[in-house]
Structure formats: structure tokens, C-alpha cells
Amino acid sequence: MAIVEARNISKIYDGKVAHLAINQLSFEVEQGEFLAIMGPSGSGKTTLLNMLSTIDEPTSGTLTIDGVDPQQFTAKQAALFRRERLGFVFQDFNLLPALTVEENMVLPLTLANYPVDEMKGRLDQLLYDLHLEDVRKKQPTELSGGQAQRTAIGRALIHQPKLLLADEPTGNLDSKSSKDVLELLSGVNKERQTTIIMVTHDPIAASYCDRVLFIKDGEYFNEIYKEDLRQTFFQRILNVLSLLGGNVNDLSTVRLS
Ligand SMILES: Nc1ncnc2c1ncn2[C@@H]1O[C@H](COP(=O)(O)OP(=O)(O)OP(=O)(O)O)[C@@H](O)[C@H]1O
């Protein structure tokens, strides 16, 4: 069953000169899938993620997320939908500096007034799954990049969202921490059946996914599915990226290992 259905969605930014950022894009994301979205700088990835996040809406076309059309929501309903059904992970972690690891992670449940026992149970499980038990009382400034991103992933998962949206989650991490985070996301996807959509410039990160959707100039360009080994998938991703072109700087974060 599809958790995301986009039918001919377009997004035009109004301004002195109107800009067509997404042009007649259609795609589906299956429940339980781990999808990467790739494309050159300016191809519309952030615009698309903003629409999937329900913080922006298509100018035309229909976008259904978990069976509902967010365009029908009031601002309050949209906020509730995001809080209950979506999780977000960003490149720069976005942790609250005054709170500890465990306080950051449990924050979405605190805000939703969950019972204390339920909060504690979910927190302990996630601290264990994310290998953060030793740093649970630390503050974000005392963490490595990998620990900070794992904390952010914990915060994004604690309310058990159906869809996790990740924007360059490994963009600020070294290769070892990136690998840890990608293996964790892959594990979350397989074990919890959480659907994940990840925007990335990094073909290594994309090779952890089941499918990569490539967009160019706001339009569908190609998509490939992982069929075999991750290393082979990585090679096929590089092949499509070379066809896709774009600015060489777009690949500045690529690590060839
Ligand atoms: N608020 C806005 N107003 C007008 N144009 C915008 C706005 N936001 C983005 N754009 C334009 O829409 C196009 C798509 O931008 P978007 O940020 O979605 O691309 P991207 O693929 O995420 O790029 P990058 O990889 O560099 O982050 C770009 O040409 C950009 O200049």
C-alpha cells in the first residue's frame, strides 16, 4: 500500500519572476519503503521535502500522505498531523542545547502529555537501540556528530511516526559516523517498518535505500531499485548521477569508499 501518492504535482514560487520548482511530478512511496531522492542543486529536492512535510503545498496536482490530503487541513490540523505521524531528521541535528540527550529525545512525548511510564519505556528502548545509554545525561555540546545525529533520530522516532523524512542526515558527519547512522536508519526501516524518505547528495547514503528517485529541473528523471549488493547499487547510482550532470560541487560530499 502506498503511504505517499503524488499525482502531477507542481510548485510555483511567486515572486517578481515566478519560478516553477516542481513540474508535473508523479510518484508513489510504498509503506515500509526506504527511498532516496537525489538531484543536482536547485532541482527541487527541498521543495519536494517541504511538501511531503506538509509545511508547504503544491500549486497544482494532488499529494496524499498516509491516506489524507494535507491541503484540506487547517494550520492546527497540519501541526497535529506532523506531530503524530511524521518524524524529521535534519543535516544540522537541531537539538535543543539546554536539554540533555534524554530530554531532547523525549520532548515530543512531553509536549503531547504522554504518561510518564510510557515515556520512560520508549526512551529506554531507543537509548539502547541507538547506543546512547552512556551519554543519556550529556548535553548536545558534549556529543560527537554521530551521537548528536543518533539523538535527533531518537527524537524523530519516539512518537513512532509512520513516515520519517530526512534531509541530508549524514551531511555533517565523517564517514564512520555516516555509516553508523545509515545502518541505524536501515535497521529502523526493516525492524519498525517505518517508511523513510531521505534527500541526499551522497551516493553511498543512497545505496542504503531500496530505491533512488532522481529529479532534474523539478521533473522526474529516473528511478532505480536495489536488486543485489549495496556496492553494485552504489555503482548504478553513480552511473545515473553521471547522466544527470549538474554542478560538480553537488558531489563535493561524495566519499568514494
Ligand atoms: N522560496 C522560494 N522562492 C523562490 N524560488 C525558490 C524558493 N525556494 C526555492 N526556490 C527555487 O526553486 C528551485 C528549487 O529549489 P530547492 O531548494 O527545492 O532545490 P534543491 O534541489 O533542494 O537544491 P539544493 O540541493 O541546492 O539544496 C531553485 O531554483 C530555487 O532557486
Give the key terms.
Rossmann fold, 37% helix, binds adenosine-5'-triphosphate, alpha/beta, six-stranded mixed beta sheet, 257 residues, 8 helices, three-stranded antiparallel beta sheet, 24% strand
Commentary on this structure:
The structure is a single chain. This protein is α/β, with parallel strands linked by helices and 257 residues long. It has a single domain, classed as Rossmann fold. The chain contains eight helices and nine strands. The chain has helices at 45-52, 75-85, 101-111, 116-129, 145-157, 175-192, 203-206, 230-244; strands spanning 2-13, 19-30, 34-38, 60-65, 86-89, 163-167, 195-199, 211-216, 219-225. Strands 5-6-7-3-8-9 form a six-stranded mixed sheet, with helices on both faces. Helix 3 packs across helix 4 (116-129), helix 3 runs parallel beside helix 5 (145-157) and helix 5 (145-157) packs parallel to helix 6 (175-192). The mean pLDDT is 93. Residues 13, 15, 19, 21, 39, 41-47 line the site of adenosine-5'-triphosphate (ATP).
Spatial ordering of strands, largest sheet:
5-6-7-3-8-9
What is the 3D shape? globular
Major β-sheet annotation: 6 strands, mixed
| Pattern of helices and strands | EEEHEHEHHHEHEHEEH
CATH superfamily: P-loop containing nucleotide triphosphate hydrolases
Write down the CATH topology: Rossmann fold
Tally of DSSP β-strands: 9
GO molecular function: ATP binding
Domain ABC transporter: 4-242
Protein name: ABC transporter ATP-binding protein
Keywords: ATP-binding, Nucleotide-binding, Transport
